[in-house]
Amino acid sequence: MDSEPPGLRIKPLFGDGDGDKIPDIELMEVRTLGIFAVWWDKRFEWESRANFILKTLYKVREDCIKNLGMSDPKNVRLGFYLNVYIHDSDLYYSGSTKKDDLFPDKWYAMVKDNRMGLPYMTLPWQDTDGDLVRHEGFHVFQNEWYRKRTKQWHELGWYIEASASWYAADRANQKESVTSYERVHFITANPHLAIWHTEHNKKIGDPNEKELNQRQYALECYLFFLCEVCNVPKNIITDIFKIKDKVNPAEYLFRKIGSQNLREFFTYWAACNTDDFSYLSNVQKKIYRYTKVE
Ligand SMILES: [Zn+2]
Fold first, then answer.
1. Which of 8, 60, 165, 253 could, after both became Cys, cross-link 180 (CB 3.0–4.6 A)?
2. 113-142: per-residue pLDDT in tens?
3. Is the entire prediction scored with pTM above 0.85?
């Protein structure tokens, strides 16, 4: 793996300050490391945040490519840095900052394709911690895999999110508080839903509510339970991203772990969920209780 593939070009497609739809590079700051370029509106002081994001993403890439056998995003093959924009998330924090920036108002944290078909990442000023950066970073290395499978998205969506959150928490260092367990109560709030239920894979007429639409993130606790309590090897969670053929994640787990085992593990997991998520630590649960009362 090249730590910095030679000759990557830098080209932002966002950051229009004067309304001509062309990014205004002179209004932005940028720092690069490895394959990533982090941008922000230069009226704000995000240098140390940018360095933290770059170091975290650098480690994610090293792990994903060297240890997990995943692929670099398309950007690298075509000779471009992967752009990461630190931005003000007005959508979620309306009125809280009163400081607008150069970037679109409706961004939160995501990895999406730009108009050249190349993925970019957005991270909000607010709440960007190692956990969130690793989650989005993992999407970057899942990207080559799932972009070939967009027609299968209804089957894959839950696993893409659950595994990214599982990864983010699994690679946290001991001192970090992991915020990604904050949605686990969506599971007991909706015990009747299929594991693959998501906002984009639901029944006609299902209500459009956060508890239903974000449940897939909470399923990281299912993957955590399989690895930590049932001793499923962690590489089973990530080896799916090396499979070249069509694959359904629910079926993949069923076959890899074994039908007998998985039936037993799933039942055990469901029971422990109703026992106040007894397999999560007090620290993990502290976060979950905190968000529950929001
Ligand atoms: Zn995600």
1. 165
2. 999 999 999 998 877 899 999 999 999 999
3. yes
